[in-house]
What we know:
This protein is α/β, with parallel strands linked by helices. It has helices spanning 44-55, 79-88, 91-107, 122-133, 174-187, 213-231, and strands spanning 7-13, 16-23, 30-36, 59-63, 111-120, 138-142, 161-166, 191-196. This is Carboxymethylenebutenolidase.
Amino acid sequence: MSATHADIVTVPTDAGDMPVHRWLPPGGTGSGVLVLQEIFGVSTYIRARSADLAEAGYVVYAPELYHRIPDASVDEDDVDRGIELAGQLPWEHALTDARTALEALHAAQERTGGLALLGFCYGGGLAFNLAAQVPPDALVSYYGSALPGLLALAPEVTMPSLHHFGTADTFVPAEQIETIRQAVTAANSSAEFVTYDGAGHAFDNPSPLFHHEQASAEAWQRTLAFLAAHLG
């Protein structure tokens, strides 16, 4: 993954200006992808994946959803601290700020094509929730940790969607993954649901604590192909 980083723009919210990391594709314009963070914030990993998307031709925004929390620093493999920070941020505040960032990306002059949501773990559930409110052209959710509690929204998530889960996920057990699969595919005939044998939770994160090399590579290629098919 590339770690190239472009710049930061600010988006006004009811809690002050929210920093939003922005990457532009080589051509300067393109379809837009809003990337929503794991519990570790807009980490080196999230920035690297965002840069990968920009290199693939997308305008990418990644909002700092923890901007409301003083001293929200967290190491990228400190699970307890990440859970603590996520718990300090009311879900509705995160959802409101994600929506604000999506609206800013929608209005950005650099965005000349479609619009997608892509979320990892915490952000995977947040993206699903946001997609039910403000439908994008496409949704990609990596092991959305909040999805078990959001399935009542499934009938509202009607755009093409792609869901990734590992079969060895201990945070979202197999029976919950099957419940999620049934709900999202029953409500949406265009939903794609893919599981990866032996991969645990956060398998795309390159930290040795989480990473599953084969699942990560396969899921990312599926993600790029999915975005290309639905955003151009």
